Amino acid sequence: MQLVEVEGSHTLQNTYSSLDVHLGQSYSVLVKADQLPGDYYIVVSTRFTRTVLTTTSILHYNNSFKKPVDPPPAGPTTDIAWSLNQARSIRWNLTASGPRPNPQGSYHYGSVNITRTIRLANSAPIINGKQRYAINSVSFIPADTPLKLADFFNISGVFSLGSIPDNPTFKDGYLQTSVMAADFRGFAEIVFENYEDTVQSWHIDGYSFWIVGMDEGTWTEDSRKSYNLVDAVNRCTLQVYPKGWTAIYMPLDNVGMWNVRSEDWARQYLGQQFYLRVYSPANSLRDEYAIPKNALRCGRAAGRRTRPL
After folding, report:
1. One-character DSSP codes across the chain
2. Which pTM value belongs to this model?
3. 159-193 per-position pLDDT tens digit
């Protein structure tokens, strides 16, 4: 499999015989039909799970008279280091998408000053006797009004900015409609820290970002020395390995109320998400369009027609 694209970004065209695809991720690969005529196995298996689930298909040449050679390829390795090294090998193709010496122009992610560092740690607390999932000890609960409507119409009492901390607290989990405030046109370093024994996968709505580093162990400021500040791939999902961390650089260039969430649906439903409110005081249509006239208004926004002055 020759990898050519990851979530909208052209990549170095490395060839893989096995490719890890984590929750929410997408890849484009090229497969050359240049082998001797025959039937060949294509196997998809789960990794890092207690029970390995496997499905098998056949790549068949039209002039094939040979059946696949049994047994099918072996199940996946559970070696974290193997998967981690593969993830690091996926890099941006800086010569694609235009005959320019610097496809990123004068704006290169590795040379932009960081305006804010946010550390996010997932956890699985028991709250009120029930299993919940949390980020920085906060387990998200929905409000009675969609947060974007409450923000647009300036409706008080629906959420509070700063209701989720910028750093892990390692305290007991609690329920909250968690919203983090962020300034428009900042440049954030976000570190996802995983203290659990399972692989975590994350998505950020409204944004793409550069995955500059990932490793096992605990993230420290010295971890920045290992960052890839040249050709890190730009994408919208990321994985964090057990007892490990993943760091991203993200320009806060999209005004709005954006969901940051686990790609594990059970975890997301039970609280492992929050909203990032990127705000511009200019309140300009250049930065954010007005709400559509036919948008549904519900909760405390029911009946609202215009934004208050």
Report:
1. -EEEEETTEEB---B-SS----TT--EEEE----SPSSEEEEEEE--SSSS--EEEEEEE-TT---PPPSSPPPPPP--HHHHHHHHHH-BB-TTSSSS-S-TTTT--GGGSPP-EEEEEEEE--EETTEE--EETTEEE---SS-HHHHHHTT-TTS-EET-S-SS---S--EEE-EEEEEETT-EEEEEEEE-SSS-EEEEETT--EEEEEEEES---GGGGGG---SSBPEESEEEE-TTEEEEEEEE--S-EEEEEEESSHHHHHTT-EEEEEEE-TT--TTTSPPPPTT----GGGTT--S---
2. 0.92
3. 999 999 999 999 999 999 999 999 999 999 999 99
